[in-house]
User: Fold this.
Amino acid sequence: MTLHSDVAELLAGAGIDDVDVDDAVADEHVRSSAYQRVVSVTASSRSRDRDRAIVATILRDPHGMGSRTAVVALVDRIATQMTGPAEFRRWSAELLPEIDRLTAEGHRGFIRRRIHDWLFYLSVKDGQISTPAELAKVTDWMQRVLAEESTSLAVLALLAESGSRKKTRNIAKDRARSRKLMP
Assistant:
């Protein structure tokens, strides 16, 4: 496969016909934008059958940052649609062989951490109470997401005590305090 055929296949599969394939191949910014549109169409689909093939195709791109960003966007979008950690674990397990083919350890590690973060988030949302040790394995980004979004007093208390950043701990403390005051 060539970059040209990969980009053409992704765009056609997503029904995107207003992007010039030659322009996308020549300009990584145009290509990155096209990948984001492909990810948006892919995530909106009810079927998850093509996700692995789409990820594999995107990750063949020689511009690692743009392809990693697109795959992370897909992971983020799909994670927010999942009903729980088991469903997301099954879905992400399908992608891991493609992710593990990445030669850049930084990109591979970043995507794996994002998947781990979402598994943690979905477990917490599902009612699992985490320990400070488990929380320490989650990125600062996910801790902040939880501090800003969680409605669980137990989760907010954990973040207020064990969050990795002062700002995250303060957000969790403030939100916990305001939740306690609510009728």
Summary: The radius of gyration is 19 Å.
